[in-house]
Amino acid sequence: MEGFISLFRSYNIPGAFLVNIELTLWAALFSTVLGLILVMMRISPVSSLRKVSAGYVELFKNMPLTIIMVFMVLGAFAQLKLSFSDNFQTNFFWLAATGLSLYTAAFVAESLRSGINTVPKGQAEAARAMGLNFMQSATLIIMPQAIRGSVAPLGNTLIALLKNSTVAAAASVATETSSLMSEMIEFRPDVIIQIFLIFAMGYVILILPIGILTTYLSNKLAVRR
Amino acid sequence: MKHRYKKGLARKAIAMVCAASALFGMAACGSSSADGEKKIRIGIKYDQPGLGFKKSGTFEGFDVDVARYVANQLGYTDAEIEFLEAPSKQREAMLQNGDVDMILATYSITDERKKAVSFAGPYFVAGQDLMVRADDHSINGPEDLNGKRLCSVTGSTSAKVVKEKFAKEVQLMEQPGYAECATALFSGIVDAVTTDDIILAGLASASRGKLRVVGKPFTQEYYGVGIKKGDTAFAKQINAAIEDMIKSGEWERAIEKNTEGTDYQPDPKYNPPTPDEGE
Amino acid sequence: MGNSDESSLLFDQPGPKGLKRIRIINWVATILFVVVLVLIVLRLHNPPDGENQLSWELWKPALDGEAWSDFYLPGLWATLRAAFLAVIGSVVFGLVFGIGRLLPSRIVQGICAIVIEFCRAVPVLIMMIFFWRAFAFLDLPSPSYWAVVISLVLYNGSVVAELIRSGVGNLPGGQHEAAVALGMTRTQSLMSIEVPQAIYAMLPAAVTQLVVVLKDTALGSIIMYTDLLQESRRLGSMYFNILQTLVVAAVIYFIICWLLSRLAEWLPVRMQQHTLAPTEPEPVAPIAIMDPSNVNQIAVAKEGRPLGGSQRLYHVHHRGTNARIHGWRRTRYVQGYDETQPQSQHVPAEHHMHHRSKGAGGR
């Protein structure tokens, strides 16, 4: 028990979790926007937009997140000089957030696309029969209904995003949980099990409510025929 | 009929999968050669150009050269030397388990480590130093780093030493390996890389002339040969071999060969060292 | 599920003005993307303070034979080894705990539930770091290899367990009823009838999970496991062309994962011949607690109304969270399938278009 208390006293553990949560929130915001854009591109009548969106989703679904993070630091930052701030830590944070959003946007697009598949064909046919053009039928009729069917995969994507925020360690974000955990184990190897339990329980406490909320919402909004 | 065929097929598939997984499971375990053949197993680094690097099945670097010389003096031919990888955090474990007979992997002699293993040597005294771009003359020592950016490897204490003792305003970047730090240096997002000077020299010599070592080491790291705890007889033999290497000039030649292209000179105040540890 | 299915419904066959507009937008979009790509390539060619990233001098060491035989192929072998063992382990783990969570005994269900939810909630990297350091302290051989394998087994095994549970949950109710009618106990019905069908049903999703396993072995490079990513970093440290070696590694990862995804898309049709549960995988693997994708939304949406809109032939009382062998009455009630209880049929006013209405057609 004293092990736990001394660990909390010497290391800023809640701060590390806060960094991960911040990463998750920003990445969730950007990836939702980007995912929506991607899915609209996917169902649009313009064939080049469809191809680009399909290509993007394929690319980022089949790429390990670690490589994307390393590319953000060594490629985008180092070569393309994409810099968000002069302070290293802030810069790396935003690079990691960008990498996370690019990666998650592909999964958000996939989830939304599967949600669109749950909308009965009759809705689209009726919209067409009423004379609505593409943008109108997509934004007024299809997407609102599609979101109902995509609550479950979107919730799972959010949880996966929270867990993936630990990979920001590959983008040199030094204050987030996995880097802090490595450091703590380095200096206090005697309490390694307590350290693991602290971080594991922290994530369990963060993820369980999101999971329960997802389940509840998805049942409430479940598509019933 | 179809059912029986399928059942047999399923059983065969499961048997194959079990065999394959057993194979893969065992492939991970280190191979301990207990076949009576005279072999000496030496732990080195595989990923530090200039010190210990694995290239096309051969090994090159200063640590490798010293290891070969010592093994030859101990009576082993080159063919009887087996090099294994000794990552930084596993060096003590490998010696205690007996996976290797000795370790030459930029292994600094510290009191903390002496609790778990013994050392012979030292065979080199390195010092922490800075590596900068060849055309950058604004940095000539760790004090010049205030307001600049510094890269080092995750888990190494070098960067913290600089920040605490010399330049409080320096911005730190940690990367998993020297390759990434050197790339960062090349592309201009950091201004210096810090670690032991001979490691930097090895990196600089592979850099096609674009990087240089500042040449003012500000700490001392005594590189020793890690051996099993308490083996003083072995330590004596190794120390004799190292002394021999220094006297015969091989030591000097090995350093020059591995840091070709840079003007690197080991810190003359401490080099060549007197190997007397572990006796 | 080709794009022609989805998108061609949303817009009418465009007339001449519409066609012209689409063509213009097509061209504009294409030109925009090409311009962005060219800008990026130019920037790589001439980065400020840096080296020309497109020069052959940097690319050659990343592509020549020595690179392949000494770095990429051994790294790929290490990755595949870890992935293979992780897949086998996670299938075994998933079978054990997934079936455990479905057995009639409450204690077994509880223990399995706790284990599964814990392994699903902890990030894989945290588990890898812990096992790596623990194995290094216990002086086990190849600590990073076993750390990677065991963390992957724990996480993916829990996902497979949930896939099995959702496979069982998505079976039509008649399966269990028939088994019970034949005199089988709950456990016998589970093991002989429901789980085998669930395994067939979950195979496409399991292959998708295989892609996840491969991507997560790349995390091994953070704990110094010498997989493909780590080897390409080492190759990069020889000639300082790490960006190029990373691109090659990324291409290799992409090709393998892409091939596996193609396999996962080809499987559902084949698997549907062996099972009554829907084989179409959900887009994201189930991670949320009491996984809601037990109700496979896509499958529900695709169900036809046999006999032109009359009542469904088989009750769907197994659909819902926590697919269990008993408790189906409550699930059926909560999900609104029990028409003998009108108060459970309440659907809020905003969702009136989805009310199981007496309105005609829709399919």
UniProtKB/TrEMBL annotation, chain B:
Residues 39-261 form the Solute-binding protein family 3/N-terminal domain. Residues 1-27 form the signal peptide. SMART domains: PBPb (SM00062). Residues 253-279 are annotated as: Disordered. One of its GO terms (cellular component) is outer membrane-bounded periplasmic space. It holds the Pfam family SBP_bac_3. Keywords: Signal, Transport. PANTHER family: ABC TRANSPORTER GLUTAMINE-BINDING PROTEIN GLNH (PTHR30085:SF6), AMINO ACID ABC TRANSPORTER PERMEASE (PTHR30085). Belongs to the bacterial solute-binding protein 3 family. This is ABC-type amino acid transport system periplasmic component.
From TrEMBL, chain C:
One of its GO terms (biological process) is amino acid transport. Residues 352-363 have a biased composition (Basic residues). Keywords: Cell membrane, Membrane, Transmembrane, Transmembrane helix, Transport. InterPro entries: AA_ABC_transptr_permease_3TM, ArtM/GltK/GlnP/TcyL/YhdX-like, MetI-like, MetI-like_sf. It is found in: Cell membrane. Residues 76-264 form the ABC transmembrane type-1 domain. Pfam families: BPD_transp_1. The chain crosses the membrane at residues 24-44, 78-99, 111-132, 144-164, 198-226, 238-261. It is a multi-pass membrane protein. One of its GO terms (cellular component) is ATP-binding cassette (ABC) transporter complex. Residues 339-363 are annotated as: Disordered. GO terms for molecular function: transmembrane transporter activity. It comes from the Bacteria. Belongs to the binding-protein-dependent transport system permease family. This is Permease protein of ABC transporter for glutamate.
